[in-house]
Amino acid sequence: MSVAFRREDDDEHKEPKFELPLPPGPNLVTRRGLAKIEAEVARLEAEVAAEEDDDKRTALRRDLRYWHARFSTATIAPAPPADEVAFGSCVTFRLNGETRTVSLVGSDEADPAAGLIPFTAPLAVAMTGAEVGELIDFGGRAAAIEVLDTRPIAEPSA
Known about the structure:
Layout: E1 28-29, H1 31-50, H2 54-73, E2 75-76, E3 89-95, E4 98-105, E5 116-118, H3 122-127, E6 135-138, E7 141-152
Parallel strand pairs: 1-2, 4-5
Antiparallel strand pairs: 3-4, 3-7, 6-7
Helix pairs in contact: 1-2
């Protein structure tokens, strides 16, 4: 039989498995964000140890490598200034006539539905450095955001 028609195994025809991409930039975290990363590492280590299926264990190990990398590069950000929007701030603002409150957190802690947005999100970037009462350009509009209040996120003590 010609070599062109021979296949050693099916693995060579499967989609390649790539590592999970790491978010760009520094891995700033809050204390709560670091605890979330630690919990995810512990959960995945337990799942890897218990998993008997090789393919599932391989996928779990890939996830575990991601979370180990996030843990090893995590830097707890210093507390933000009380009067300025920064990483770790809880910000109340008005945009398009609607008042909202969000907290600026690390990428792995982000949950927009819960009001936790990553500090790299366009909204967070626009507000960073602003003070209460300041009007900020956003989305191509001048003075689109009004910062109403900012305070450090309440976090568990160290």
